[in-house]
Design a protein that fits this description.
The complex is a heterodimer. By secondary structure, chain A is an all-beta fold. In chain A, 0% of the residues lie in helices and 51% in strands. Chain A has strands spanning 3-7, 10-12, 18-25, 34-39, 46-51, 58-60, 68-73, 78-83, 92-100, 108-112, 116-120. In chain A, the strands form 2 sheets. In chain A, strands 2, 4, 5, 6, 9, 10 and 11 form a 7-stranded mixed β-sheet that branches. Chain B is mainly beta. Helices cover 0% and strands 44% of the residues of chain B. In chain B, the strands form 2 sheets. In chain B, strands 1, 3, 4, 7, 8 and 9 form a 6-stranded mixed β-sheet that branches. A 3-stranded antiparallel β-sheet of chain B has the order 2-6-5, with no helix packed on it. In chain B, a hairpin with a 2-residue loop joins strand 5 (65-70) and strand 6. The chains are: A mainly beta, B mainly beta. The A-B interface holds A 35, 37, 39, 41-42, 44-47, 49-50, 59-62, 93, 95, 100-101, 104-110, 112-115, 117 and B 2, 33-34, 36, 38, 40, 43-49, 52-53, 58, 88, 90, 92, 94, 96, 98-106.
């Protein structure tokens, strides 16, 4: 049974860093592209970024490029999102999602975690 | 501001048919890239995949849900509306100019 469980959210001051984790079970993260998607309170979904199944290709949304980094630990079957230089507008529920389909251009999310809330506040 | 434009809200009575549109451009929906649709029952809860690659339903999604694409627009049709269909719906595609994925702004469906 596929399961994704995010953790690591919390309240953080602007300019600080936070690392989110996404523990996967029921499948191996190294065999799928894995994405992060976020949703600010009361707003819509925003794509954050992806790490390809091979672990080498990574792409990010414009609003987080240069500040956020996606990585994974195959031994722990866990996906990470390192968030640096956090801003008020990064406040959101962060979801990890497993993708199917041709990498990036043809991908869709068939499994989602429940999300973890990150609040950037002074 | 999303470059995939959806109506903020639609509504329909039980049993009726509603259509949710998603308008893009030549760099996303207007290409060969597929369009996906997701249902989110409540904000802050995990979305659910309804339609992938324009018109394909994952196992377990009722055939009351269908998707289509034409030119730079896509649509999600829901027939035989049920109270449980009340949710937020999002379209999603790839954008070649951004080299990344896009979501529409979301549409809130109200079942009257």
């Amino acid at each position: 049974q596929v399961q994704l469980v995010e953790s690591g959210g919390g309240v953080v001051q602007p300019g600080r860093s936070l690392r989110l984790s996404c523990a996967a079970s029921g499948f191996t993260v190294s065999t799928h592209s894995m994405h992060w998607v976020r949703q600010p309170p009361g707003k819509g979904l925003e794509w954050v970024g992806v790490i390809a199944y091979n672990g080498h290709e990574k792409y990010y949304g414009d609003s987080v490029k240069g500040r956020f980094t996606i990585s994974r630990d195959n031994s722990n079957n866990t996906l990470y999102l390192q968030m640096n230089s956090l801003r008020f507008e990064d406040t959101a529920v962060y979801y990890c999602a497993r993708a199917l389909g041709p990498f990036l251009a043809g991908e869709y999310f068939n499994f989602w975690g429940r999300g973890t809330l990150v609040t950037v506040s002074s | 501001q999303s470059v995939l434009t959806q109506p903020p809200s639609v509504s329909g009575a039980p049993g009726q048919r509603v259509i949710i549109s998603c308008t893009g451009s030549s760099s996303n929906i207007g290409t060969d890239y597929g369009v996906q649709w997701y249902q989110q029952q409540f904000p802050g809860t995990a979305p659910k995949l309804l339609i992938y690659t324009n018109n394909n339903r994952p196992s377990g999604v009722p055939d009351r849900f269908s998707g289509s694409k034409s030119g730079t627009s896509a649509s999600l049709a829901i027939t035989g509306l049920q109270a449980e269909d009340e949710a937020d719906y999002y379209c999603q595609s790839y954008d070649s100019s951004l080299s990344g994925l896009l979501f529409g702004g979301g549409t809130k469906l109200t079942v009257l």
